[in-house]
Design brief:
The complex is a heterodimer. Helices cover about 75% and strands about 0% of the residues of chain A. In chain A, helix 3 crosses helix 7, helix 3 packs across helix 9 and helix 9 runs antiparallel to helix 12. Chain B folds into two domains: about 200 residues, 3-Layer(aba) Sandwich (D-Maltodextrin-Binding Protein, domain 2), CATH 3.40.190; about 230 residues, 3-Layer(aba) Sandwich (D-Maltodextrin-Binding Protein, domain 2), CATH 3.40.190.10. The radius of gyration of chain B is 24 Å and the shape is globular. Chain B has 19 helices and eight strands. The chains are: A mainly alpha, B alpha/beta.
Chain lengths: ~290, ~475
């Protein structure tokens, strides 16, 4: 078989761009993570710290709490969006649904709204004293809802906001996947006497797995690095109850200008994300890596 | 007839002199700006009333006179800092002038971020306007001078104190006065002590239970540095705790090491301040300075400490404020002995806030920016700017008839600023401002939401602040 090297030539620009915007910053962050570097310190130069930044992170409860909070948030939003997205996808595919196209359009609109606008809008809806959400929760259910004093309210609101914004993405992905499924295995399963749950679990889910995997990965990555929406909604509060890891890193790197420590945090977070993704991949495919 | 001819003659001569002077002034800006015709200078600032005036009025006027285009970005406080600092750190040169808040100037000086305006004008006399005279400014200019050289590093554009605003209509209402007397045994008048303030707050919260009226504003966002600032720069000084409770020489924060951050006075102050939340509207735990102004303007609080930059529109702009004509102005309440300490110059009763425009070292249009900063530093533009933004940075502005007139409508806010401004002080000269703020603020947030007690919050905050100062190398 003859091989041509011309393909490499076509790949070169993309490879170079990837190298410059991806690999070089990564190496730089890796490098900075081994230094004590704060431009506002008495000595603003880089000072070798070895593994000190990483050692400190292991005992930094604020960092660990932020990380744990982010994982809980990511778990809730990904699972909820997957379930809700599937239900909505099936509903919007039903032939009997009147005004299906209209609902599809309405349902998809949140995806096009910028995260910063989503956060600002939800903040206006939820701000105590003026927002309509606290007003009606009090009026109808007697709930004193306050995202600036109640950590639970703030956390749940952050989850609901994320569901509102990103469930349509999951719905669209699953609709595309479901539409592309072959009819024969489903008909065969019905003929074999499988009930709806069995057909869903043993036929639809395995066939939908590639789409599910992609969707879950995308949403998991997004949820783990959620910053802008949360910043606008709660600024990480009340106290530190919605200070997710992205916000925490931002605060350390920018206002605090603690670059070495911030770099170490970023790398550790990246490592956790990769491990989680790998575990998820193994759990969903039963394989330990590599393409089929 | 003779005298009529003389009068006409004198009139024409005066007109001629006036127009030639005006033309000469125009021609000076035009001549000086000639080499920079068509250039664009970009600035960034916090979206405040004073900044908006620069964006909407002064920038376009400068462009008209010089041909230098001004692009102005008025954004949120945190975005303003974030963008400006990143630009100066990375030396990208996106901005040609930046807002230097009085808090951050020492950090910028320590990092050599700013162009020395005095030196630059001395080195390039062609662009030194005869109308820009640093001696015309109030002493607020001193905060924007390099402590080593005494040179000007920023042109003041905003300056205000944080006064105690109260609802004059409510305080002067005989029926309310009687109810207050019946309830407390005291006469209703603006508070001069913290106990009086709390008592008034409690009374109006009970009185206003069915009227959407509460006893006080509190700038107590549970996740925004505004809460840190209100406590350490507006409330703690009234209890005699200065410079955030950090010793300026040893950089100690804990009382054990000679600091004041967790002193008995500081703890009393935090307990008082957090205690006011039960007399404040529900939005208070989400409020920064803007929301506090909004709350007062909406008539939702009987009294409060409100940033003076908002005093003009709250007191005079009916399109935004429901309390026009009802605003009283006074000095904040203090603990015994604090006023005396402030009067003798040993302390202060609050923060003298504001900012200046400076030129980043990374600017690619330094000369054109220097022209712009001098343009906004002329005495002739100050009055209308003050009317729009309740900010005064020049002594002459206080005496302008328009300001005197507005002062009456504002219940003497400008008079208070002129006569008692000396009782207030700028931020402490800490180059580690942002670093310590980020470390201490979470403890204040936790005290606001009741996660920890105020006393514990300050104990932990002082320890954390000291650890940060050790890490930064300030404290050995």
């Amino acid at each position: 078989m003859r091989q041509s090297n011309i393909g490499w030539l076509f790949l070169t620009p993309a490879t170079l761009i990837l190298f410059v915007v991806g690999f070089v910053p990564f190496i730089y962050i890796l490098y900075v993570g081994f230094f004590d570097w704060n431009t506002n310190a008495v000595d603003p130069t880089l000072r070798w710290a070895g593994l000190q930044n990483y050692r400190s992170l292991v005992f930094d409860t604020t960092f660990l709490n932020s990380l744990a909070r982010t994982l809980v948030f990511a778990f809730f939003v990904v699972v909820s969006e997957l379930l809700l997205g599937y239900v909505l996808a099936r509903a919007l595919m039903a032939d009997r649904l009147w005004g299906r196209q209209f609902f599809r359009t309405i349902h998809t609109l949140p995806i096009v709204v910028a995260p910063i606008a989503v956060g600002a809008t939800w903040r206006l809806l939820c701000v105590p004293g003026f927002g309509i959400v606290p007003y009606y929760l009090k009026l109808w259910f007697g709930i004193d809802y306050n995202i600036s004093t109640n950590a639970y309210h703030a956390f749940v609101t952050a989850i609901i906001m994320d569901l509102w914004h990103w469930t349509p993405f999951v719905t669209l992905s699953l609709m595309a996947g479901l539409t592309a499924l072959p009819k024969e295995p489903l008909e065969q399963a019905q003929i074999d006497g499988g009930n709806k749950l069995q057909i869903f679990w043993y036929v639809i889910v395995p066939m939908l797995k590639p789409v599910l995997l992609t969707t879950v990965f995308i949403r998991l990555m997004d949820a783990l690095r959620s910053v802008d929406e949360i910043w606008m909604l709660t600024k990480g509060g009340p106290a530190e109850s919605t200070r997710f890891i992205g916000l925490h890193i931002w605060i350390n790197v920018f206002p605090k200008t603690d670059y070495g420590y911030g770099a170490a945090m970023s790398l550790l977070t990246l490592y956790v994300t990769i491990v989680l993704s790998w575990l998820l991949f193994v759990a969903m495919t039963g394989r330990k890596g590599g393409a089929q | 007839m003779n005298s009529f001819v003389k009068a006409v003659g004198v009139g024409f001569i005066s007109l001629g002199l006036w127009s030639s002077t005006a033309l000469a002034q125009d021609s000076w800006w035009k001549t000086a700006a000639q080499p920079y015709q068509g250039a664009t200078i970009r600035g960034i600032s916090e979206s405040t009333p004073a900044s908006k005036y620069v964006e909407q009025v002064l920038g376009p006027k400068f462009t008209e006179e010089t041909g230098i285009k001004v692009e102005f970005e008025a954004t949120s406080w945190d975005q303003m800092y974030d963008k400006a600092i990143k630009d100066m750190e990375a030396n990208t040169g996106i901005y040609d002038f930046v807002y230097i808040e009085q808090d951050i100037v020492y950090t910028y000086l320590a990092r050599n971020f700013l162009v020395d305006i005095t030196k630059s004008l001395a080195d390039n006399a062609k662009i030194a306007s005869p109308d820009f005279k640093p001696e015309n400014f109030t002493t607020f200019l001193n905060y924007f001078k390099d402590p080593k050289s005494g040179n000007v590093m920023g042109v003041p554009m905003e300056a205000f104190i944080k006064p105690y605003l109260y609802r004059k209509d409510l305080f002067d209402d005989p029926a309310i006065q009687k109810a207050y007397k019946d309830s407390t045994g005291a006469d209703l008048k603006p508070a001069t002590t913290h106990d009086e303030y709390t008592q008034i707050a409690k009374f109006f919260t009970e009185y206003g239970a069915d009227k959407e009226l509460w006893g006080t504003t509190v700038q107590a966002s549970s996740s925004h540095p505004a809460a840190f600032y209100e406590f350490f720069e507006s409330v703690a000084p009234t209890f005699g705790v200065y410079n955030w409770g950090i010793d300026g020489k040893t950089f100690a924060a804990t009382e054990a090491n000679g600091g004041q951050m967790n002193s008995a006075a500081a703890k009393k102050a935090l307990n008082y301040w957090v205690g006011l939340l039960k007399y404040a509207p529900p939005e208070s735990t989400s409020s920064t300075w803007d929301e506090v102004a909004g709350t007062f303007a909406a008539g939702r609080a009987a009294q409060g400490l409100v940033y003076g930059e908002n005093a003009a529109w709250i007191a005079t702009d009916e399109s935004k404020s429901t309390v026009v004509g009802k605003v009283g102005v006074a000095l904040p309440p203090v603990e015994a002995g604090v006023m005396e300490a402030a009067e003798s110059g040993k302390g202060y009763i609050g923060y003298y806030d504001g900012g200046a425009f400076g030129i980043p070292h990374s600017s690619k249009n330094k000369d054109a920016s220097l022209l712009f900063l001098q343009y906004i530093g002329q005495a002739s533009v100050q009055t209308d700017w003050a009317l729009a933004g309740s900010r005064i940075v020049m002594n002459s502005t206080y005496h302008d008839p328009k300001i005197v007139d507005q002062d009456k409508k504002m219940n003497g806010y400008y008079t208070l600023m002129r006569e008692d401004g000396k009782l207030f002080a700028g931020a402490p000269p800490f180059p580690f401002h942002a670093q310590v703020l980020q470390v201490v603020a979470p403890f204040i947030y936790k005290a606001i939401v009741g996660e920890i007690k105020p006393d514990d919050a300050l104990d932990q905050a002082a320890t954390a602040a000291e650890a940060e100062l050790v890490k930064l190398g300030y404290r050995k």
